[in-house]
Amino acid sequence: MVIMRLITTAVYISIKDPGIRAQSRSDPLHPRRGHRPHPDYVIAGAGTAGLVVANRLSEDPNVSVVVIEPGSDQRTNPNVTNPDAFLQAFGTDLDWSYPVAPQPGAGGQSFVLHQGRAWGGSSAINGMAYIRGHKAQIDAWETLGNPGWNWDALLHYALKSENYTIPNDSQLAAGATYDPAYHGFEGPVHTGYPLSLSNGSASPVIIAAWESLLLPHNPDLNGGNTHGFSIGPLTVEAATNLRSDAASAYYSPIEARPNLSILRGTVKRVVWDKKMKKNNRPGAGKEDLLVARGVEYITDKGETRILSAAKEVILSAGSVRTPLIIEGSGIGNPKLLKKLGIRSEVALPGVGENYLDKASHMIGFAGSLGPTGGAYHAFATMDDIFGDSVSDVAESALAKLPQWAEAAVGDAAWTGLDVAAIEKLMRIQHRLLFRQGVPAAEILVGSIPGADDISVLFSQYWPLVSFSRGSVHLGSVDAIDSPVIDPRLFLADFDVDVSIAAGRLAQGFWLSDTARPFVTAPILPGEDLLPNDATAEQWEAFTTTSVIPHSHGLGSASMMARELGGVVDPELRIYGTANVRVVDASVIPLHISGHMVATIYAVAERAADLIKGKI
């Protein structure tokens, strides 16, 4: 998402809740025969997942759905629709631009985290890469206490959501390949390749260079095995060359449904009913369940309102904002809630913890290759980046897991987290990396036009499965828009080692016998900081001072067993509640060796069937 940056009417509704004014094009939720005075479902967030769920639930005309979203309709904004201009949205009103806490592991630097603030959420401003991830990682979700959540189950929903366009002859000549068995052709989300991707001078050089480095070609990165190099599809409608985001895919085509509306506002907390519900779930113990009456939200004019939900509240505000709503509702670490002046309703110390992001870097060279019109993805395993020393690296990492788990927990008396549980998660990650061949690093390579007929040849890279874990929490009960975000980049020193090894491979690509004839000189960060023969000290200095968060955060309301620090159960209900679910990136418990949006769409499609009782 950061290549260029590093190189150079909402629809209002009328309801019967007190104090809410009629501001709609019609009166879709006005009580009528057989219809409740309140919406059946209230969804917090019209983002990537929220609009999927809203669409699928409102397929039943007898079900009413209201989505509350602080962003607005941007369907005519070229900074959203134009796939070649997506970075123009960064730092605008479409981007939350959250400040990130200073990172000790990155020289004390502070950063900005990019998250979408529009209908469609981050799918409206992201880099559009559509790569689902590695099968073994998704299958590992079941080992965390989530029966039924595995690759095969999610593939069904991934195909349901996708509308894939087969690459044209020029794109095939540029290196695009695919297997139709791993694509859907009738779903709402268009995937394919932008018109700018076409055969040119760069394509054969890039393909030959990766082959010379013995990285295998992958015929389809969406087939459950991401190892190797290929050109991945984007969430782009090929016929129009426009971005396909959650708003254009899941909302615009069905916005005339009278039982579905988007309300402009910011959900602050869940409002609980005075009654409790007996917990009859297997193995649940004697804990009674909180019953949500609805949500409290702030209108765009700063007024506080309450919207009731007849059936369920669904939180789909994303990996940053969802944990804030949960904490504001009295669920989380009791000591933190007390400090914030919030009454503790359910003790769930995992809320806002297990926040996983990636540490991204870039190097660049001046050169003479023509533009690629896109980026070529390479997914490298531990064997690829560490070679003959991989066994020693695996042994060393295994020995350090207890140390990293303790660092992730911090002061256990304060956080309430279990070191043994965190270590178990890390052991699963270790096994995925060193025994199951899950890719450990991703490298994007490409060429863009520069000045004076000189091209900029770039490699952007990042570890895919870091052992560092961060957090996202409320800083104040009245500051829902000002979260405390601390990804704790490089909390585990191993992540520095993987970044350096990936960086050496990224640099080695352009210095290979195949690519080097087209390279003039290093320009990013420059030969003085990272020469072609950089020492270990120079690599470490560059790695720790030139990193940025990848804005791919997940896990802050993880779907896993409660004793592991989980926040939601396999039906995506928040533990201790009867009718509040979470459906967004925050429930994904482990890193993905791919790109997030494809997995989020699949998770949301499956979640909709869970809510409808089809699973």
From TrEMBL:
Pfam families: GMC_oxred_C (PF05199), GMC_oxred_N (PF00732). FAD binds at residue 267. GO terms for molecular function: flavin adenine dinucleotide binding; oxidoreductase activity, acting on CH-OH group of donors. InterPro entries: FAD/NAD-bd_sf, Glucose_Oxidase_domain_2, GMC_OxRdtase, GMC_OxRdtase_N, GMC_OxRtase_C. Residues 116-139, 318-332 form the Glucose-methanol-choline oxidoreductase N-terminal domain. The active site is at residues 552, 595. Its cofactor is FAD. Keywords: FAD, Flavoprotein, Oxidoreductase. It comes from the Eukaryota. PANTHER family: GLUCOSE-METHANOL-CHOLINE GMC OXIDOREDUCTASE, GLUCOSE-METHANOL-CHOLINE OXIDOREDUCTASE N-TERMINAL DOMAIN-CONTAINING PROTEIN. Belongs to the GMC oxidoreductase family. This is Glucose-methanol-choline oxidoreductase N-terminal domain-containing protein.
